[in-house]
């Protein structure tokens, strides 16, 4: 299957993408991983991206599209892939269609993870990260540490990242509504969108997603 995963920040896209890709035996292709891989390997596209990033500028669509195209052409993606974070806007969505069409391929589904805005803010603004080890992540409501402000695992100080503050989260949501949400209508016109609630335990959301994808591929 060739799937695009969409949803607002805080919807759990990365978590669900990992589970879905494993269940479907297809690679999980995320924008973040694409950038890290290209930059660390010093590819021409990675070098271009780094130039823009060092200058504090947004990486142009054509660079992101080029990275995604290269990754989708790798052998492990021959039978499908799950795209997470790409396409991010209409221009990228149209380019993706052209890339697939050139190989006589098409998307099978666009999975839309739906989460109320207040829940997104609660999820992200409540996160606390350990300064000693950033893989230790807590939440003031859903996964509170035993001692406030102290990591259960190593005793490090827990802090709130700048981009997790409520006003920043709402700014990120506005960017999502303006830039990314229009691709949902674009794909709805193609009959590709399946929308599920991303509320509830991770395993339940995964089951919901797999059932929706099965129906879409029936």
Structure characterization notes:
Belongs to the adenylate kinase family. It is an enzyme of class 2 (transferase). This is Adenylate kinase. Monomer. Catalyzes the reversible transfer of the terminal phosphate group between ATP and AMP. Plays an important role in cellular energy homeostasis and in adenine nucleotide metabolism. The protein has a single domain (2-216), classed as Rossmann fold (3-Layer(aba) Sandwich). The radius of gyration is 18 Å and the shape is globular. The protein is an alpha/beta fold and 218 residues long. The model has no long low-confidence stretch (mean pLDDT 94). Helix content is 49%, strand content 15%. The strands form two sheets. It has a five-stranded parallel sheet with strand order 2-3-1-4-8, with helices on both faces. A three-stranded antiparallel sheet has the order 6-5-7. Strand 5 (127-130) and strand 6 (137-139) form a beta hairpin. Helix 4 (61-72) packs parallel to helix 5 and helix 6 (117-125) packs across helix 7.
SSE layout and pairing:
Elements: E1 2-6, H1 13-24, E2 28-30, H2 31-41, H3 44-54, H4 61-72, E3 81-84, H5 90-102, E4 109-114, H6 117-125, E5 127-130, E6 137-139, E7 158-159, H7 166-188, E8 193-197, H8 202-216
Parallel strand pairs: 1-3, 1-4, 2-3, 4-8
Antiparallel strand pairs: 5-6, 5-7
Helix pairs in contact: 1-8, 2-3, 2-4, 3-4, 4-5, 6-7
